[in-house]
Amino acid sequence: MSTPPHPQKPAGPAGGSSEVVVAGLAREVHELHRRVDGLDPVVGRVERLEEMAARTADTLAAVVGRRQKATAPSWLLAPTDTADVEGLLDKLTVWLGAVFLRYPDGASALPECWLWHPDVVEELLWLMHAWCAAYQGPDASVSGAGDWHDRQRPGVVARVRKSAGSCSIERHQTRPGWSAPGGAPVPVPGLEHAAAITGWWSQHREQMPPEPDAPAAVGSIGGALR
Hints:
By secondary structure, this protein is mostly helical. It has helices spanning about 15-40, 40-65, 80-100, 105-110, 120-135, 140-165, 195-205, 220-225.
């Protein structure tokens, strides 16, 4: 007895398998589009971070550039090391002879006792460093030199003349009947009111300031008024 042949499955439409593949690819492409669209906010944040980083780098470069500019030492706040102070004066005296005293008004304004006047030494120190910056520093320029001649040097000469122009070595010597030599630091006035002003300015600056205490009466008239 012969076995009947198995019925063959009807063949599908031509190219059916290709359509399935294309449909699968379409779904994958759609999913990829959906994922990429979801990355748009992230891309925007990355771009903003890049802009912030660039601005920060520019700011830091500007700050570093400012810090690298030459600064003038202070005679009033000079270090207490004798060698450091000697170095400041050595440079200053050489520059005075080479530059400052070449100008007649500078030579006539600087008294022989200038070293006994801390404010004068302070003025001359910064003027020397301003000259170095205008003529020799990394930012040396014609405009800087012009500003030194037109504004900075005349200003220092005028202040030195006003502060010590009529002084002399003898005025710094103590003699019977003479007033105390100048040059000593002046006490800060009004320190007894600092606590009251601190409380007012920190807590009640919108209000009227506290009234200062009356000065202590001096002499017989003051005693009679009590």
